[in-house]
Design goal:
This protein is α+β, with helices and mostly antiparallel strands. 41% of the residues lie in helices and 30% in strands. The chain is built from 3 helices and 5 strands. The strands form 2 sheets. The protein has a 3-stranded antiparallel beta sheet with strand order 1-2-3, with helices on one face. The chain is flat and about 60 Å long. The chain starts with a helix and ends with a helix.
Length: 128
């Protein structure tokens, strides 16, 4: 029996290979990205994304007016997975390593945004 049953259920059978993870929400979907330790030239993917839908429920926001609102809640399974990932990665990184990881993620984000901006600018030029 694995000590990380949620990760095992997701098909991750070597949790010791996990280096870091990130969880983002986009259009009522939780997107979990897991980054694995890989050696140069290894054929396995260095990261994998998993998408989880959020459950929708109606909650009363004003009982006096009988007003309700739709709320999207994170899946209990995603909570289990992130708890396991937090446990796995907590002791793996020093403060300096964590800072390097954050800077790397920021760099990747900046690159993605710049690529998207260039694409949109090209579309604008085509419209002229």
């Amino acid at each position: 029996m694995s000590s990380y049953p949620a990760l095992n259920e997701m098909g991750i059978h070597n949790p010791e290979d996990i280096e870091r993870y990130s969880l983002q929400t986009n259009n009522n979907m939780d997107v979990l990205r897991i980054v694995f330790k890989r050696k140069k030239g290894e054929l396995l993917h260095s990261s994998k994304k998993f998408r989880f839908g959020r459950s929708e429920k109606m909650v009363v926001t004003d009982a006096g007016l009988n007003k309700t609102e739709r709320v999207h809640e994170i899946s209990p399974f995603v909570i289990k997975v992130t708890d396991e990932l937090r446990e796995l990665t907590r002791a793996k990184h020093t403060r300096e390593e964590q800072l390097a990881i954050i800077l790397d993620e920021m760099s990747r984000l900046e690159e993605e945004v710049n690529t998207r901006i260039a694409y949109l600018q090209a579309l604008v030029r085509k419209c002229d």
